[in-house]
Specification:
Blueprint (H helix, E strand, L loop, with lengths): L1 H6 L3 H57 L2 H21 L5 E5 L5 E3 L6 E3 L6 H10 L1 E8 L2 E10 L4 E8 H4 L1 H47 L14 H113 L8 H49 L5 H44 L4 H99 L5
């Protein structure tokens, strides 16, 4: 409550109150210091005076004891003590003087009789203590009053001389000084209050003007300028600081207005751009999802194509093995045909052994029939291989068409395989026809040999005809062998192409895997970009709200 009352006071009142408090504190300190010093001085003086007078009194009493008898001693003692008391009375101390014996009886000196009477002034324990110490000073209370006691032991009489002075008595000058100090302090306070009113006028008036200016500024009026040019340097500095503050505030408000206008101008555009960015990001995300799905499908297709190529390579290797067997059989057939040709050429010269030759020829034709059947089986096998190769080439072409751009190279290889398969099928068809004719002719020759075995003449003709046939067989077998060699070379080339396709397929697989990983990374980055755009949109909204708040605040100021 006190704090609230003081805070509501005006500056002038506060300054006057401050000066008054400072002066009051100063007067209080000076008064207290003066009182304390004076009191200590007077106490020290009275203590010294009591000790000195007590010592003198004891010396005088000692002289009286030696100079006078008991009757005269009493009157002389009365005179000396009364004189001592009169001196203290003159000083306004009004002392009480007592003489005690060892039994704590008070010696009545006032009438010179030195009669003993019961002590009712001082406590016996305190008297005993003084007897023990012989002399000294004691500050104590008697009858609820502060007193100073000076005492000394009288050896000649075994008495104790005691003089008691009230503190109120010897501190009367101090009280007077205190009253004077209080009066002087009040007078000084009144004078200082009047002087402070005059002196604070030059401080409070500029401060009041500054208060009015700051009050206008607090209401938002930044057009106010402090025009204080006279007064203390501190007040002028405060006035200049207030003007600088107003100027800076005005500049800040103007800049804030510009910022608010800029935010209001670009906020809508930024909102539209943000919305478009979010929509485009969603579209990109959807396309990336589609690409990722297609990439997965492409990876599966590449894996299937790789497996099919491996199967094609396995089939081609089987074809190479079968062709090698066919070549071996063709060599045997070629040698056999050559032998038969030589035999027929020697038929004429070996007519004597015609029966044996015919028999050998008969057996030879049986073997030819058997080998021709084998060749026919091999040709059928090669036909089947050619058909499978054709089907594989068709499947490869279909898969290449599915792979779109990535399957163009593979489509070319598939076309080459299909052409090679067609050529092989045509060549094998021709060889099959020739082998069929050869087999038919061998069968016919065999039948004729069986029928005309006993006809040597006809055998010669048949031998000549057989020689011609054997020449054709040898020629055809030679052609067949060359075609088989060519087919073997083509199949080896096909296997080479398959190896290349396989390596390229593996590269495509790696690219697809890398593409899938890149797609995942892009998808992740798009997610992060989408979150960033969302956060940016939120930040933009917050910024617009802050701009509106700033605009509301700035509207309160007039610049």
């Amino acid at each position: 409550m006190r704090k609230l009352i003081i805070s509501n006071l005006k500056i002038k009142t506060k300054v006057l109150l401050l000066f008054s408090i400072l002066i009051l504190i100063s007067i209080t300190i000076v008064g207290y210091t003066t009182y304390t010093i004076t009191k200590n001085y007077i106490v020290n003086d009275i203590e010294h005076s009591l000790l000195s007078s007590t010592k003198i009194m004891i010396n005088q009493i000692s002289l009286l004891v030696g100079a006078y008898n008991s009757r005269e001693f009493g009157s002389k003692l009365q005179y000396v003590v009364e004189s001592e008391k009169a001196d203290y009375d003159i000083r306004g101390l009004e002392p009480q003087i007592y003489i005690f014996d060892k039994q704590f009886y008070s010696i009545k000196w006032q009438d010179g009789s030195l009669a003993k009477e019961k002590n009712n002034k001082i406590d016996n324990s305190l008297i005993a203590k003084m007897f023990t110490r012989n002399n000294g000073l004691i500050h104590t209370k008697l009858n609820n009053k502060n007193v100073l006691i000076s005492y000394k032991y009288i050896i000649e009489k075994d008495w104790l001389y005691v003089i008691i002075v009230s503190e109120d008595a010897y501190l009367k000058p101090v009280a007077r000084i205190r009253y004077v100090t209080i009066f002087t302090g009040i007078l000084s306070l009144i004078l200082a209050f009047l002087l402070s009113m005059i002196g604070t006028k030059g401080i409070t008036e500029p401060l009041i003007r500054l208060q009015k200016i700051l009050s206008n500024i607090s209401t938002g009026d930044l057009r106010t300028i402090s025009d204080i040019k006279a007064g203390s340097p501190e007040i002028i500095d405060i006035s200049n600081s207030v003007n600088n503050m107003v100027t800076n505030l005005r500049d800040i408000i103007i800049k804030i207005n510009r910022i608010i206008n800029g935010l209001n101008t670009y906020s809508e555009d930024f909102k539209n751009v943000s919305a478009i960015s979010i929509a485009k990001t969603k579209e990109i995300f959807a396309h990336i999802k589609e690409i990722s799905t297609g990439s997965e499908k492409q990876k599966v297709t590449i894996d299937e194509t790789t497996n099919n190529i491996l199967k094609i390579k396995s089939v081609a290797n089987s074809m190479i093995s079968n062709i090698e067997k066919t070549v071996s059989s063709a060599k045997v057939m070629n040698d056999t045909a050559l032998t038969g040709l030589q035999a027929i050429e020697n038929v004429t010269e070996n007519m004597k052994a015609i029966n044996l030759s015919v028999e050998d020829t008969y057996n030879l034709f049986k073997r030819l029939v058997y080998n021709s059947k084998k060749i026919n089986d091999i040709v059928d096998l090669i036909k089947n291989i050619s058909k499978q190769t054709h089907l594989l080439s068709l499947n490869a072409a279909i898969e290449a068409a599915r792979a779109d751009e990535y399957g163009k190279g593979f489509s070319v290889v598939a076309d080459e395989i299909r052409k090679l398969s067609n050529d092989s099928e045509n060549a094998i068809g021709q060889a099959s026809g020739l082998l069929s004719e050869i087999l038919n002719e061998i069968n016919g020759a065999n039948i004729r040999i069986e029928k005309e075995k006993d006809a040597v003449t006809r055998g010669l003709l048949i031998s000549e005809k057989a020689e011609d046939n054997f020449k054709d067989i040898y020629k055809n077998i030679k052609i067949t062998k060359e075609n088989i060699f060519e087919l073997e070379d083509q199949i080896k080339k096909v296997i080479g192409h398959i190896d290349k396709i396989m390596s390229e397929a593996l590269i495509v697989k790696e690219i697809s895997t890398s593409f899938n990983q890149s797609t995942s990374d892009v998808e992740k980055n798009v997610d992060e970009e989408y979150e960033t755009i969302i956060n940016l949109e939120r930040t933009t909204k917050d910024l617009i709200e802050y701009a509106e708040l700033l605009n509301e605040v700035v509207k309160k100021f007039e610049v």
